[in-house]
Write the structure tokens for this entry.
Amino acid sequence: MDVIPADGHVHSEWSWDAPLGAMEETCARAVEIGLPAIAFTEHADFTTWKLLNKNIFEDPTRKKHATPEGMLVPPRLDVEGYRECLERCRAKFPGLRIIHGVELGESHWVRSEASALLHEGGFERVLGSLHCLPVGPDAVLAEVSGIYLDRPADQLIHDYLAEITKMINGSDLFGVLAHLDYPTRAWPASLGPFNPSKFEEGFRYALSALAATDRALEVNTRNLPFPELVKWFRDEGGRVVTFGSDSHQPGGITHGFREAVDMVESFGFRPGRHPYDRWTV
């Protein structure tokens, strides 16, 4: 890996689910490892989720924001506090390009709230993500990892890809699609390794929609990325990718980047003129 790309998906203490996040320590770590740029993309969630998985409900971070009925109510992003902290870090680490970003959850369902937040925040990098799906006759939203208890795993993947395509087509508020493989993080071990080729049609449908808007696909390295997704994105006309560790603590930034860069380069993507640019073909 000759070029270290910007880590375009990082969370700090300003994300509700990152109790171990620390922006200043993360910046210090970035400087230590020679990272040219980093994007803090703090969570902005306006939907409430039912926690179907008991283990997830008992997680201290989620339980803190859950109702007795098991509904997760994410707190609103403190835009002013986040911005002030970021500016302090920019002053302390002038050699590090610190990008002001946000991760918008389910923006096609909460367009007015999300639009207001973007107007208030003036963010440089906006990720779009999908963490939940409707469940039951009342279409209550539930966090994806818990839905494996509610429906067959294959059906969940098909439903997720269909909904994320709706999000791509129904929201122009984000510039980078985050962790398209999100539901595979909780793929049941009893079913063996996840095989993306089994769901190629659904992945390609979503990737084609993304490519048509000329937006970027994030290569998320929280888990080992699937090369098939980058290949299919390229096949469908995709031209831009970014890299994101999805780190929630300082030591996690750039995790898995070496392997991800080699993989992305094998499909013809190259860095831009500046270290913090997106990678293009």
Summary: The mean pLDDT is 95. Residues 37 and 271 are 13 Å apart (CA to CA).
